[in-house]
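>> received
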Amino acid sequence: MPRPLTETVRMLDSLGHHVEEIPLDLGVSWEEFVLGNARMWTANLAPWIDSISAATGRPVDETTLEPVTLASYRYGHQVTADEFVRALAIRNQVSRTFAQHFARYDLLLSPTLPEPPVPLGVYGDGADRLDGLGWLDRILDRSPYTAAANVSGVPSMSVPLAEHEGLPIGMQFTAAFGREDLLFRLAGQLERAAPWTHRKPPIWAAE
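>> returned
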């Protein structure tokens, strides 16, 4: 999303903000990040599904779950205690490393997603052939910036500052832990500078 990001930087400059380009260090490799999250997410998912199954009397199989959910359920049951603890360590490392950026910067800016909105069905194409790790790898590959903020536990907001073929393009702003006030103040400033309430998508439920 180079053009919308560049335009956002120019707007921020015009509003008096100083913007620098920096590499975003997670403290672990992307492969470790995906694997750790896959293990934690599916290991939590599996007992949730088992509890619902026990409460409703419904089986856990193809008749009750979509393929990716069932694959994630099965993957979660294979995660060992050692792997789960290692996944926790990865998340802790990411949180600590991510927090170090705020020693120098008030906010981090990135696109909300790395590409324009994709057509319906893209995420699910061939999903029946994926295991839990493969599914999460697909999801995080299409939303790496939101994933990093979520894992770190820091507040973020997506602001629709651009559009593509009538659909909004979000810019993600991330603050340090407990600094939602910075996001609210910036959101108000951005909405006054580039209002978006008048924009409507080509297909709009209100019409």
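>> The radius of gyration is 20 Å.
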